[in-house]
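Good morning,

Attaching, inline, the backbone tokens for the sequence recovery test we're adding to the shared suite. The designed sequence is right after.
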């Protein structure tokens, strides 16, 4: 479910708080993996999602179920973080918080994710070349996530955060048409 701009902002704040806790525990990557597992469970298990989403079930009951399910599997502080999310009625933001956490962790390690749109499928070598060129431009390690959209006709459209680099044939034809 889309979180919206406000939800993403709230999720980013929670992700920053969790990253701070994870760094104090000296296991930022491990905590990110645990959060990703919880998020995946919420996204893929309809019963779990409906349980957490239901306004008829108290926050205490939800926390108790999480506690029983995770007590022996996650650090106590991580579990308390999840319980606080439930108490604040933010449990449905866990998948978005996981995405924001991954983004923050990667950014702290100099890794940037880019959505790369191409007109047709690319080979592994082409994808590696795109990653290499973008990394050189940005000065950080770029991980490309390639999407195919034949409507761009040719070229590449790259989105990294708020930055869009549009080298598509469709855009170039549009510029020619306007001239």
């Amino acid at each position: 479910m889309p979180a919206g701009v406000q939800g993403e902002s709230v999720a980013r704040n929670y992700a920053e708080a969790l990253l701070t806790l994870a760094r104090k525990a000296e296991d930022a990557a491990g905590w990110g993996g645990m959060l990703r597992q919880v998020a995946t469970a919420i996204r893929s298990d309809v019963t779990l999602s409906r349980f957490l989403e239901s306004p008829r079930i108290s926050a205490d009951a939800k926390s108790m179920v999480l506690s029983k399910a995770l007590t022996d599997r996650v650090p106590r502080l991580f579990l308390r973080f999840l319980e606080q999310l439930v108490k604040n009625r933010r449990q449905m933001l866990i998948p978005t918080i996981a995405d924001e956490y991954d983004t923050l962790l990667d950014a702290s390690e100099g890794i940037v994710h880019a959505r790369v749109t191409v007109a047709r499928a690319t080979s592994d070598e082409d994808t590696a070349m795109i990653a290499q060129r973008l990394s050189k431009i940005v000065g950080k390690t770029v991980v490309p996530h390639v999407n195919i959209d034949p409507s761009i006709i040719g070229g590449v459209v790259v989105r990294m955060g708020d930055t869009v680099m549009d080298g598509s044939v469709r855009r170039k034809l549009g510029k020619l048409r306007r001239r």
